[in-house]
Amino acid sequence: MARITASVYTSHVPAIGAAMDLGKTQEPYWQKVFSGYEFSRAWMKNHTPDVVFLVFNDHATAFSLEMIPTFAIGTAASYAPADEGWGPRPVPTVIGHPELASHIAQSVIQEDFDLTIVNKMDVDHGLTVPLSLMCGQPPKENFRWPCPVIPFAVNVVQYPVPSGRRCFALGQAIRRAVESFDQDLHVHIWGTGGMSHQLQGARAGLINAPWDNAFLDRLIADPQDLSQMPHIDYVREAGSEGIELVMWLIARGAMADVAGQGPAPRVAHRFYHVPASNTAVGHLILENTP
Ligand code: DHB
Ligand code: FE
User: Would you please indicate which residues are annotated as catalytic (active-site) residues?
Assistant: First the structure.
């Protein structure tokens, strides 16, 4: 049986990827950001899963505004890093896990969540920056990510976006799907994007550190209650792009305690920093204790 052993949460600011790709990680500005991921990279090495189920959002890169699936699961064998305007990031192709992805699609769709099935997709900073933060830049002689990844894209760009409540329930269905897969796999589920930021309009540059930290507290201790928060609260308090945080509820919903199968997860790591580019960076690692 496959099992979800941990969840990871992190922002996906594109400038973080650029800092890595351009060799700026030792500059004092960026050092402060990357210091929060030193623990995480060691943790990834010691707890490398068999598969990462990576919840992210596409930024009108793969889907454009012509076609906007609310929830889309990647069932492909591989995914190329997207060209976001400056050429693709110099990071490895993402290897998928079509068998597990197809099983999750089958199970979750039969539980009444209408997923879009995606057999071909390029992946933008929403997916590659979290991988870079958690895994570092793979060495030339072994240029690959440490494990296969199932990309799961959520529309948080074009209104209407899914509610936190729906995302939390979807996470619970994903857990059931993983646990009914007949192979002995360790799976991590990642929720990415956020934290507070607004890139457009009169409030561009908005950061709300007290709200972000309260979100982290509630995500850890009472995600059920947090999942009831309406989308307008995210936008008012965390900025128009702060709505990306609903994706964190998918990962949190997949943890054992929510299913009544275990105690609250262990907080292996917590980090918060302002700023990275225009954005607050938040990061958590939660482990299911056996
Ligand atoms: C930026 C873009 C993002 O998608 C995000 O989540 C945060 C910041 C940016 O362009 O700075
Ligand atoms: Fe984003």
Answer: 125, 197
